[in-house]
Write a structure and sequence with these properties.
The chain is mainly alpha-helical and 544 residues long. It has 31 helices and no strands.
Length: 544
């Protein structure tokens, strides 16, 4: 047993340092000697961080059974973790609620306030009623504050904030989510799992509310954590949501990677989780002009709410206007505000394709009303854009320019470059109709640059065709690698081009060596070059 205890201590140390491979090896050795609860729990944690979700669940469930016999408190924490993970990884609410109920029952037997509060968080996270979730998590927070349990406090704040957002109290809920993640990244909690929970809930809530700017800002603060532990978006739902943010903010190469990984993680999940990953990836494929692939991804998920808007958009892009309209009208009844906004914009576009400008104007009015009641910048942007298109179709170029300029401002504030570019193309049409061919061509050229940079081939082809019809040159150059790089990656490339090794790049930019390695690998992939020398040469050619 002394040998096993030593292995367990070594495994625990590796977990604390974020060395997941070493932890897995040590815990596997310990479990091979004797399958103790601690060994199984540690092995499950290591496997989870390494992405082997089925193996992790198997270990955790075996550990729970052993803890239930010997240590009820640890059994509560195992049940809590299983409840959260069944929901976030597999979308299995029944299993999540079952494990939450088990945690509550065992905690009530122990009758220790902090343990009861932790169990109530499992219940709050899995309940379908946001009012109950808010109440239970607020109560857990009160216990945490009195007991000075920072992990409990931060997790309670996060679940409470997400519940408030579901209740429509967006500002209050978002403030709690921000506070929770700030505390977690500030080192107040003792467990990296606290960062996973708080960052995941913030990610999912921001995607539901289209608050993409907040996610991008927080990602800059996660660099140090990622260097030490790896990406915190370990659940399939969080990974898919992160990919959706990258699509919206124009980082399509990274979005491709994250959404493909999310789809793989969701392979063994329930249809609701699979549908979400498929919908976000189909959205990317639609933007890339790969309509057949987009449609194929959605097969089998057609009745899922998250799929409906993108499926309608795919039908419209394929020229099947009647099918797009039929789908939208069937699904508008029970759609949430963001889904309804996207559906109404598709319906308005369908009206315009049929030559029904008045119908498009009606949909724009619906969108405007929806934006007013929800206080959503994204809905306001979509409403202004559709209204601009409708009035332009009715021959009111001046009004169209005003509306489209407003939409352009909204999408810019939301940091959605592809939507900005799409709006620029519409603005170019309005300016041209107003008699301003020179500014129209300038707007279209800016749009074309963005489309080529991100790889939006369908939009880029349309922009190039419009420019040629306006008498301007518009040779398609394809995606420009440098435009695909993030600001930090461009900084790294600039120093790399000086011939400096990774340690000196890290010192120059005040980042870790592992972060430099990550950025260099991403740069080589995005630029399509094989090594650092070719990357430096690529930059030199652009600067000539």
């Amino acid at each position: 047993m002394e040998g096993i205890d030593g292995l367990l201590a070594t495994g625990a140390k590796a977990l604390g340092e974020g060395d997941w491979s070493a932890a897995r090896a040590v815990f596997a050795e310990a479990v091979g000697i004797s399958a103790t609860a601690r060994g199984l729990a540690g092995l499950g944690d290591a496997q989870w961080w390494l992405g082997d979700v089925p193996a992790a669940f198997s270990c955790w469930e075996r550990a729970y059974a052993l803890y239930r016999q010997s240590d009820p408190a640890d059994a509560v924490f195992m049940a809590l973790g299983l409840s959260l993970s069944y929901d976030a990884n597999f979308g299995d609410r029944a299993a999540a609620q079952g494990w939450a109920a088990r945690a509550v029952r065992i905690a009530s037997e122990v009758a220790e306030p902090v343990l009861v509060a932790w169990a109530s968080l499992a219940r709050a996270s899995s309940v379908d009623d946001p009012e109950l979730a808010a109440s239970w998590s607020e109560a857990a927070y009160d216990v945490a504050a009195m007991a000075e349990d920072r992990d409990l406090e931060l997790c309670a704040l996060s679940i409470w904030g997400a519940a408030l957002i579901d209740l429509g109290q967006v500002l209050e809920g978002t403030a709690l989510l921000d506070e929770a993640l700030a505390g977690a990244l500030g080192g107040e909690g003792a467990r990296p799992d606290t960062v996973v929970l708080t960052s995941c809930l913030l990610m999912r809530s921001c995607v539901r509310g289209a608050d993409f700017v907040r996610v991008v800002q927080w990602m800059r603060s996660l660099d140090e954590f990622i260097d030490r532990y790896g990406c915190p978006y370990l659940h399939s739902t969080c990974r898919a949501a992160y990919g959706a943010v990258l699509v919206s903010t124009g980082d399509w190469p990274r979005a491709e990677h994250e959404l493909t990984a999310a789809a793989e993680l969701a392979r063994n999940s329930l249809p609701a989780v699979q549908a979400e990953a498929a919908a976000f990836l189909a959205e990317l494929r639609l933007g890339q002009g790969r309509l057949v692939e987009a449609r194929r991804l959605l097969v089998g998920f057609e009745d899922r709410p998250v799929v409906r808007p993108v499926l309608a958009a795919v039908h419209l892009a394929a020229g099947d206007v009647a099918m797009a309209e039929s789908l939208v009208r069937r699904q508008l009844v029970d759609a949430n505000p963001l889904e309804a906004a996207r559906l109404r914009e598709v319906l308005g576009e369908a009206c315009l394709v049929r030559g029904d400008a008045a119908g498009a104007a009606v949909e724009a009015e619906h969108l405007s009303a929806l934006g007013t009641t929800t206080d959503s910048g994204l809905i306001a942007a979509r409403a202004a854009r559709l209204c601009g298109r409708a009035v332009l179709a009715q021959g009111e170029a001046d009004a169209a320019v005003r509306r489209l300029s407003a939409a352009l401002t909204w999408f810019g504030l939301l940091e959605m470059p592809v939507e900005v570019a799409r709006t620029r193309m519409l603005l170019a049409e309005a300016l041209c109709a107003e008699g301003g061919s020179t500014p129209a061509v300038a707007e279209a050229r800016m749009a074309l640059t963005v489309f080529e940079d991100v790889g939006a081939s369908r939009d880029a082809d349309a922009a190039a065709a419009w420019l040629r019809s306006a008498g301007a040159s518009a040779a398609r150059s394809g995606p420009r690698g440098l435009g695909l790089l993030t600001k930090r990656e461009r900084d790294v490339l600039g120093v790399l081009a000086e011939g400096l090794p990774n340690p000196e790049i890290a010192a120059r930019l005040y980042i870790s060596r592992r972060t430099v390695e990550h950025h260099v690998a991403s740069i080589l992939s995005k630029l399509g070059v094989r090594n650092r020398t070719e990357a430096a040469a690529y930059l030199a050619r652009l600067e000539e």
